[in-house]
Design a protein that fits this description.
The protein has 2 domains: 104 residues, Glutaredoxin (3-Layer(aba) Sandwich); 67 residues. Helices cover 66% and strands 9% of the residues. The chain has 6 helices and 4 strands; from the N terminus they run βαβαββαααα.
Length: 205
């Protein structure tokens, strides 16, 4: 057994169309499986006769208060008549829709459990994504750190070379100073006669 909603796909009555759409919306929102039977489709003459014969409520509308035949939507559970739109809407308002349709409406707790499972899966996915992002950030930081360390090494060698050059210059200065001191010492140790001989030699040159 299953819920059947008899409708008219080409009805010129706007109220009938709105009622049909509302029935569909309510059933779908409550997860009630149903079959829509369009009595205006070709080959549906038997379905149309069945609806008109077994519907005990006319489904009156504001524009058609006394229809000759029951107006859709008409709701059945298989071949058992449930009621027209007004009865359907009232049962929904007083939270008696499952009794009206003669079915068990899916428990909202089942939907809650499904939602919890979905949320848990989404949470795990988010955690995994965060861990991946953190690992990537750590890798990038390590690469940058290694790059900075490598760039600093040549500067250390340059400092060593500079220091070596300064030491070499200092040694040269020391050597020149020592040579000057030796010449001064030689001049001091030269006797007057040696100075005279040296002066004559320079004059002869």
């Amino acid at each position: 057994m299953g819920v059947k909603v008899y409708v008219s796909g080409i009805s010129g009555n706007k109220e009938v169309k709105k009622r049909q759409q509302r029935v569909f919306m309510i059933l779908e929102s409550k997860n009630v499986p149903f079959v829509a039977v369009d009595i205006t489709e070709p080959g549906k003459e038997d379905e149309k006769d069945f609806m008109q014969t077994n519907s005990t409520s006319l489904g009156c509308t504001v524009s058609d208060t006394s229809p000759r035949h029951p107006l859709p939507p008409q709701i059945f559970n298989d071949r058992d008549y449930c009621g027209d739109y007004d009865q359907f809407d009232l049962a929904n308002e007083i939270d008696k829709l499952e009794q009206f349709l003669r079915v068990e409406v899916p428990n909202s707790n089942d939907n809650d459990e499904s939602n919890n499972v979905i949320q848990e899966a989404q949470s795990k996915t988010q955690v995994a994504e965060n861990e991946l992002v953190n690992n990537v950030d750590d890798s990038v930081e390590k690469i940058e750190t290694n790059g900075i360390a490598s760039s600093r090494e040549p500067s250390v060698e340059s400092e060593k070379k500079t220091n070596g050059a300064e030491v070499a210059v200092d040694e040269e200065v020391v050597d020149d100073g020592e040579a000057a001191e030796e010449e001064a010492d030689e001049e001091k140790n030269t006797t007057p006669s040696e100075e005279l001989i040296r002066s004559e030699q320079e004059a002869a040159d």
